[in-house]
Specification:
10 strands; Phosphate ABC transporter ATP-binding protein PstB; transport; P-loop_NTPase; four-stranded antiparallel beta sheet; 252 residues; PstB-like; Rossmann fold
């Protein structure tokens, strides 16, 4: 298993956002987190690369293992965690630098000793962007279209040579054509990476993911994992009535 989560609970100050979440996320598969707004999907995603550490009032209980190593252990460097577990955000967020410098940024910061030109080309190729930008690498990343910017952000994540890529609603700001390109790219990347995606779009979860987790906040429990399993099973024969109600559009 790439990631093992055991009884994970999280609070923002006095407000609980996750309650006893346990799940095992397999390597080199796409796992989708679905559920209504405010059910803890993005919070859970940010626990996996310790992004929540950056919020001063956060308190976490439980365990989160990456290839058997406790990510919240006392001797773990959160910066190294974020290098191995990359993140692509909801809105494309290229740096105000050239396309080349966007991709090379992380490698430079981490003291990369290899051939930078090769790394940039390879990362852009893997993000299915090289053919579109190879003659304009000095152009600002901000001059690209929204879909291209998101693929640039994926290239930037890949250049750090991660093992896991987290995507927080990576297509919500994109048009349908750009969305399909990102979905195709996920299916290509999953041959080499473990991908965990938060999505509001159930059709997207059904199209791209191998496993799906359905999360929910109700009057009793905040940020709970209701059901988790192979995507096809969860969408065709859900075990929990609440999953069935959400998928069929009866609530959420």
């Amino acid at each position: 298993m790439a990631i093992t989560i055991e009884n994970l609970s999280l609070w923002y100050g006095p407000k609980q956002a996750l309650t006893n979440v346990s799940m095992k996320i397999p390597a080199r598969k796409v796992t989708a987190l679905i559920g209504p707004s405010g059910c803890g999907k993005s919070t859970l995603l940010r626990c996996i690369n310790r992004m929540n550490d950056l919020i001063p009032t956060v308190r976490i209980q439980g365990s989160l293992y990456y290839h058997g190593v406790n990510l919240y252990g006392p001797d773990i460097d959160p910066v190294e965690v974020r290098r191995r577990i990359g993140m692509v955000f909801q809105k494309p967020n290229p740096f105000p630098k050239s396309i080349y410098d966007n991709v090379a940024f992380g490698a430079r910061v981490n003291g990369f000793k290899g051939n930078l030109d090769q790394l940039v080309e390879q990362s852009l190729r893997r993000a299915a962007l090289w053919e579109e930008v190879k003659d304009n690498l000095k152009k600002s990343g901000l001059a690209l279209s929204g879909g291209q910017q998101q693929r640039l952000c994926i290239a930037r994540a890949i250049a750090n040579q991660p093992d896991v890529i987290l995507m927080d609603e990576p297509c919500s700001a994109l048009d349908p054509i750009a969305t399909l390109k990102i979905e195709d790219l996920m299916r290509e990347l999953v041959k080499d990476y473990t991908i965990i995606i938060v999505t509001h779009n159930m059709q997207q979860a059904a199209r791209v993911s191998d496993y799906t987790a359905f999360m929910l906040t109700d009057e009793q429990v905040t940020g709970q994992l209701v059901e988790y399993g192979p995507t096809e099973e969860l969408f065709t024969t859900p075990k929990d009535r609440r999953t069935e109600d959400y998928i069929s559009g009866r609530f959420g």
